[in-house]
Write a structure and sequence with these properties.
Layout lengths: L3 H7 L3 H12 L11 H8 L2 H9 L16 H7 L3 H9 L14 H7 L3 H9 L15 H7 L3 H9 L14 H8 L2 H13 L4 H5 L9 H8 L2 H9 L14 H8 L2 H10 L17 H7 L3 H9 L14 H7 L3 H9 L14 H5 L17 H4 L12 H8 L2 H9 L14 H7 L3 H9 L5 H4 L8 H7 L3 H9 L13 H8 L2 H10 L14 H8 L2 H9 L13 H7 L3 H9 L3 H6 L11 H8 L1 H9 L2 E3 L11 E4 L7 H4 L14 H8 L3 H4 L2 H39 L6 E2 L2 E5 L5 E4 L3 H29 L1 H5 L1 H16 L9 H23 L3 H19 L1 H18 L9 H12 L5 H10 L6 H56 L2 H7 L3 E4 L8 H10 L14 H34 L11 H17 L1 H13 L5
Antiparallel strand pairs: 1-2, 2-6, 3-4, 4-5
Helix pairs in contact: 3-4, 3-5, 5-6, 5-7, 6-8, 7-8, 7-9, 8-10, 9-10, 9-11, 10-12, 11-12, 11-14, 14-15, 14-16, 15-17, 16-18, 18-19, 18-20, 20-21, 24-25, 24-26, 26-27, 26-29, 29-30, 29-31, 30-32, 31-32, 31-33, 33-34, 33-35, 34-36, 35-38, 36-39, 38-39, 38-41, 41-52, 43-44, 43-47, 43-52, ...
Organism: Ursus maritimus
Pfam family, one: Ion_trans
Keywords: ANK repeat, Calcium, Calcium channel, Calcium transport, Cell membrane, Coiled coil, Disulfide bond, Glycoprotein, Hydroxylation, Ion channel, Ion transport, Membrane, Oxidation, Repeat, Sensory transduction, Transmembrane, Transmembrane helix, Transport
């Protein structure tokens, strides 16, 4: 399709087209509207150019739209181009297309008062004059909104519907009323009369919100339109959905003249002056709410009830007081409004007055001299609170002073036994507290408790108002306990208000050790809520570390509630050792804190273990470079408390802490260098020797047994004198060669088995039920029993078949059990663990394995029963099992019998062997291999950690058997390791080379740390700058507080800024860009050389 612009140029209208384009370029708003030349020509009224464009283009160009959905007809209508509109309509342009704002050309013409264009559009046969536009507005409604009476008359003459509503249910008459279109209103009413609607019914049409035209006129505030509505019969009693009459709308706006007009024009019987809305509010309520005092004065003059109440029991006086409408308040009081009326909460107007700024000063002085108002100063609300309670709670000094001048008792109590001082202290009203305490003659008020036994000091501390606490203490407040046994320090620590706590502690240091009914101190509360700063503060003031009634110290509480910051703060505190020692050996839920950390907060335990590693300063590659490992926290919990509270009847299993790590699968802790060195220390001290001795004693039975099996031909009878050979005539010949060695070996096997029996019996008494649960013990019994039967010819004669079968069982389990012994050694233990995992995988797949074996075994028995290998069901299943391992024997079992015609069912037999080959050697075996390899990869991932867990179990069982004096002799609380020196010498080094993996220690090279040091310097400079800025900020705050002479300062405790500042510093340290750079530098410089 050819370009229309180029076509116009080719037709000889180059100059006109260029002039048109120049004008368009000056208007930047058209640059990105994707407009066509026809849009511009229509807007400029270039009819000839339009005709050229249309003739050279397709029919669709007439209705092409720009980016906002406007057609050329829209552009022509908006610019009042009558000729363009006529031409486009004559060419077939659609007048009913709407743009993105849902506006058709007719809507634009009416809206822009282009009535000539509107006439052309309405005269066109295809124009829908009732077409809905934006928000459902028709051209009639738009005409009313613009007071376009000429257009409205033309539309009605052309048959437009005057009663078609928009999406809000508003009719044209509503729009005319709201827009103040009086001419349009008259046309509509007259048109309605001509078509059967009398004016009174028409003027009272309601929209979807039940609002009449009078409601709309009042909203717009057009007095002339309101008068027109009233003259045409608008009803004042009509209510919209909110149950408001037009009068309520006018009263809310404070439109006094409109209210006067409507009331004066009303001739009905209803009391419209006292009409109520949905909330039972009268016009006076509405005027009172917004302080329209002139309107209120008028309403009272025409009979408004000044004591009527709304649905919440509020009179105009109460409503005016609550909204600080003081002109109305003084007016109502001067008119004799009842001051005894109370709202739903039992508050009179005086309760509300004292809450407002300047309080009672807002009332005229003469009112406060009236006796019926004076009586209200001691009036109580539903909670028993007087106006003085309210003034103290909101901290209005003027109100407090005025009430006290009326001799109001400061000892008045609310229903929960709170005095005004309780309220002032609870909300931190320092100036109010000072005023209340100014004339106090004794300290009874200062130390009186409320319903819960809480004194003002408790309430101030609970909410963290440190200055109020300081004032109360200075005035003589005592450190009493509430009904729960909580002191002010308990409440302050519960909220973590460290500034308040410091004020209390500086005044009374002994209060740190006060207990509540549950035996909790302030430390318990701070720890439970996770306030690390509060805990550190209490520890610095030498707070006593005690157990509560649940046998829990503050450290137990922090650990159980997973308060990581509290635990870390305690670990870094100088009183950490003292905190660690306070626990009960008899409590099942609050054990040693170290064990509790392993269970609940392993990350904190890791930090504690990190503190146990102390490297020496110096060159890390130097031979004398060493690292000290402290094993204090891995010792038996009895070691922590033996100097404090010795417990003679408490026993812990060996390696208690490490066993807890194993129990809760804390692999990251087990792999910690301190734990690994602790186990290595145990191994070098006695583990190696004990395991070698155990292995040696085991070999006393294993080696002779192996010699007997290897040196004697299986099946031949033998005894202590030699080997018994049977001749061809069934006579027996005794072969005495090697008889001495045979006798010695038999005796060693027998003695080893007897010794094994004794050992197992001892273990039964030691382990009791756990002995039965260990499968290895059953293997031991089988080994010793079959070994004794094998060497029993030392004493009695038994059949050779029985002897050798027992020998076969014994030698098998002897060597299998020896394999299990070797898993205790690092070098080969990992592979034995892998073997166990593969066996478990095989056992899990046994179900599939067994059913496949039965399926193919029994089917081969039916098909190949003529062959010896498949002659019985049992033999067939065993042969099938052999075939599963790859020994299919296709030639002998299938091919040759088929060639000799000895295969009973050849077709079915070959189908079965193909199915067997597909299912078993390919599918099943690959499945098992895949599972095994997958498990091996998983085992390799955690092999080292599993080995450590296994070592813990082995050392535990070993220490249970060793005497206590020996363990105390070889056990060490700390060791010094020289990484650059060999750890073992002599036989131990050879054994370690054979059975243990050499642990490679990566040396950290010396590098230039100048960049790291420079980054640290910059970090500290920024830190100092931050500290300086915060000090300046605090100084500015102090200056501001000093300048606040009149107003009540919201004297909140500094805990907010203090705690927020701590959190902010912590977040800044965590997210600091400098820390990221520093971490990167450290990672790079400390990375091991490869």
């Amino acid at each position: 399709e050819s370009d229309p612009k180029a076509d116009v140029v080719l037709e000889g209208s180059t100059c006109r087209f260029k002039n048109l384009m120049k004008k368009r370029k000056k208007l930047s708003k058209y640059d990105d509207m994707s407009t066509s030349p026809l849009h511009h020509a229509a807007e400029e009224g270039q009819v000839e150019l339009m005709e050229m464009i249309i003739n050279d283009s397709s029919f669709e160009v007439l209705n092409v739209t720009d980016d906002y959905g406007n057609t050329p007809l829209h552009w022509a209508a908006e610019k009042n181009q009558v000729e363009s509109v006529k031409f486009l309509l004559s060419k077939g342009a659609n007048p009913n297309l709407r743009n993105s704002n849902m506006m058709a050309p007719l809507h634009l013409a009416v809206q822009n008062l282009h009535n000539e264009v509107m006439k052309v559009l309405t005269e066109h046969s295809s124009t829908d004059i009732n077409l809905e536009g934006e928000n459902g507005n028709t051209a009639v409604i738009i005409a009313c909104s613009k007071d376009n009476s000429e257009a409205l008359q033309i539309l009605l003459n052309k048959g437009a519907e005057p009663c078609k509503s928009n999406k809000w249910g508003c009719f044209p008459i509503h729009q005319a009323a709201f827009s103040g279109a009086k001419k349009c209103m008259e046309i509509i009413l007259k048109y309605g009369e001509e078509h059967g609607y009398n004016r009174q019914s028409h003027i009272n049409f309601v929209n979807s919100g039940k609002a009449s035209p009078l409601h709309m006129a009042v909203q717009s505030g057009d007095l002339e339109m309101i008068k027109m509505c009233l003259d045409n019969g608008a009803q004042l009693e009509m209510m919209e959905n909110g149950k408001c009459t037009p009068l309520h709308f006018a009263a809310t706006q404070g439109a006094t003249e409109i209210v006067k007009l409507m009331i004066s024009s009303y001739s009905g019987s209803h009391d419209i002056v006292n009409a109520v809305d949905g909330n039972h509010e009268t016009l006076l309520h509405r005027a009172s709410l917004f302080d329209h005092h002139e309107l209120a004065d008028y309403l009272i003059s025409v009979g408004a009830d000044i004591n009527s109440t709304d649905s919440e029991g509020r009179s105009p006086l109460i409503l005016a007081t609550a909204s600080a409408s003081w002109n109305i308040v003084n007016l109502l009081l001067s008119k004799g409004a009842c001051v005894d009326i109370k709202d739903q909460l039992g508050r009179n107007f005086l309760h509300l007055t004292v809450q407002q700024p300047h309080g009672l000063k807002n009332l005229r002085p003469e009112f406060m001299q009236m006796q019926h108002i004076k009586k209200l100063v001691m009036d109580e609300d539903d909670d028993g609170c007087t106006p003085l309670h309210y003034a103290c709670r909101h901290g209005i000094p003027v109100s407090v002073n005025n009430l006290l001048d009326f001799n109001v008792s400061i000892r008045s109590k609310s229903k929960d036994k709170k005095s005004p001082l309780h309220f002032a202290a609870s909300y931190g009203r320092i100036n109010t507290c000072q005023r209340l305490l100014q004339d106090m003659s004794d300290t009874r008020l200062l130390n009186e408790g409320d319903l819960h036994g809480m004194t003002p000091l408790h309430l101030a501390a609970k909410n963290g108002h440190d200055k109020v606490v300081q004032l109360l203490l200075k005035k003589g407040a005592l450190f009493l306990s509430d009904h729960n046994g909580w002191t002010a320090l308990h409440h302050a620590s519960l909220g973590g208000y460290t500034q308040t706590m410091k004020v209390i502690l500086d005044t009374n240091l002994k209060c740190t050790d006060r207990l509540d009914e549950e035996g909790n101190t302030a430390l318990h509360f701070a720890a439970r809520e996770g306030h690390a700063k509060a805990v550190a503060l209490l520890l610095s003031y030498d707070a006593d570390i005690v157990l509560n009634k649940q046998q829990a110290s503050f450290l137990h509480v922090a650990i159980h509630n997973k308060r990581k910051e509290v635990v870390l703060t305690t670990i870094k505190n100088k009183r950490w050792e003292e905190c660690l020692k306070v626990f009960s050996h008899y409590s099942s839920s609050n054990k040693c804190p170290v064990m509790e950390m392993v269970e609940y907060l392993p990350e904190c335990m890791k930090v504690l273990l990190d503190c146990c590693i102390i490297p020496s300063t110096g060159d890390k590659s130097c031979r004398d470079y060493h690292i000290e490992y402290n094993f204090t926290y891995l010792q038996c919990p009895l070691e922590f408390t033996k100097k404090v509270t010795p417990a003679q009847d408490i026993t812990y299993e060996p390696l208690t802490t490490l066993n807890v790590m194993v129990q809760h699968n804390r692999i990251e802790l087990l792999n910690h260098p301190v734990c690994k060195e602790y186990l290595l220390m145990k191994w070098l001290a006695y583990g190696f020797r004990a395991h070698v001795m155990n292995l040696g004693s085991y070999c006393i039975g294993l080696l002779p047994m192996t010699f007997l099996v290897v040196s004697i031909k299986p099946g031949m009878a033998f005894n202590s004198t030699g080997i018994i050979n049977e001749t061809s005539d069934h006579s027996e010949i005794l072969d005495t060669k090697n008889s001495y060695f045979i006798k010695v070996c038999m005796i060693l096997v027998f003695l080893s088995s007897i010794f094994g029996y004794c050992k197992e019996v001892v273990q039964i008494f030691q382990q009791k039920r756990n002995y039965i649960l260990d499968n290895a013990n059953a293997v031991e019994w089988v080994i010793y029993t079959t070994s004794i039967v094998f060497v029993s010819p030392l004493f009695i004669g038994i059949p050779a078949s029985v002897q050798w079968q027992c020998g076969a069982i014994a030698i098998y389990f002897y060597w299998m059990n020896f394999l299990l012994y070797l898993q205790r050694f690092e070098n080969c233990g990992i592979f034995i663990v892998m073997l166990e995992v593969i066996m478990r995988t095989l056992l899990r797949s046994t179900v599939v394995f067994v059913f496949l074996l039965l399926a193919f075994g029994l089917s081969f028995y039916v098909l190949l029963s003529l062959q010896d290998a498949f002659s019985s069901p049992l033999l067939s299943i065993i042969q099938t099992f052999s075939m599963m391992l790859g020994d299919i024997n296709y030639r002998d079992a299938f091919l040759e019998p088929f060639l000799r015609n000895e295969l009973a069912y050849p077709v079915l037999s070959f189908i079965q062997i193909i199915a067997f080959t597909m299912f078993v050697p390919i599918v099943l075996m690959n499945l098992l291999i895949g599972l095994a390899v997958g498990d091996i990869a998983e085992v390799q991932k955690h092999a080292l950690l599993k080995r450590i867990a296994m070592q813990v179990e082995l050392h535990t069982s070993l220490e249970k058997k060793l005497p206590l004096w020996f363990l105390r002799k070889v056990d060490q609380k700390s060791i010094v390791v020289y990484p650059n020196r060999p750890r073992c010498t002599g036989l131990l080094r050879i054994f370690q080379f054979m059975f243990c993996t050499k642990e490679t220690r990566q040396e950290i090279p010396n590098v230039d740390t100048s960049l790291e040091i420079e980054i640290l310097k910059q970090k500290y400079r920024l830190k100092d700058l931050t500290s300086l800025l915060e000090k300046q900020h605090e100084l500015i705050k102090l200056i501001i507080q000093k300048m606040e002479i009149i107003s009540e300062t919201e004297d909140e405790d500094n805990h907010s800024s203090f705690q927020d500042r701590f959190k902010k510093e912590w977040l800044e340290q965590r997210n600091s860009k400098w820390n990221s750079v520093l971490k990167a530098v450290k990672t790079k410089t400390h990375s091991p050389s490869r």
